[in-house]
Amino acid sequence: MILLETKNLCKSFDGVKALDNVSIEVERNKLTLVMGPNGSGKSTLINAISGFIKVDSGRVLFENRDITNREPHEIYNYGIVRTFQNPEPLKSMTVLENVLIGRKHSGEEITNALFPSRWMKEEEELVERAFKILEFLKLDHRWDHPSKSLSGGQMKLLEIGRALITDPKLIIMDEPIAGVAPGLAHNIFSHVVELKNRGISFLIVEHRLDIVLKYVDNLYVMFNGSVIAHGKGRDEIEKVLKDPKVTEVYIGD
Hints:
Number of helices: 10
Radius of gyration: 19 Å
CATH superfamily: P-loop containing nucleotide triphosphate hydrolases
Number of strands: 10
CATH class: Alpha Beta
CATH architecture: 3-Layer(aba) Sandwich
Strand content: 25-35%
Number of domains: 1
């Protein structure tokens, strides 16, 4: 079942086409990878999907709803959460506080003031849930440490934790293992696979193909703003990786 799709997305910057009729599909409960050399349009694509840039033409559909050029906070409210290549936690706050601050705000401040006991119960449940997320990510032993004390890989895990507290349907990840040691990189993707099995879908951009390709379900290859190859399932992915067009793109890069 298709969760998200783009249809003929186009975006130009100063006359240069960053996206040229890009159409992709993200299946529900799957890990979809977009790969390609630097400058191929990958970041522009995920920025367009998550609302950080506006496209010139084309459509973005999420659960058959047109979300093209919606604001990031609107897209977030639909259940799409974005993590970034360089995590930026609030470093003076603890690990637990960083997870909690990622929660969706309901806008019920007046109701909470009228019913403080209900609000306290909701807050207690939220903290309990945040602890379970940290336990799942194996960061629970650092819950009261300032986030600035975490390693680079642990900060990547914290980014996932901040996404999970929002009950996402789709997590878009921009180079989640950039600069991370191989052992921890595989650990991050083992968590991603477990979350996928629990019903969360993933759209990922990543350069470290030696690690990430082991885990993906669907693959798109981009070059010069266009999709040049696509594979669904392990057999098709293997064919894509042997495609002369794809090989030439990476050898040339």
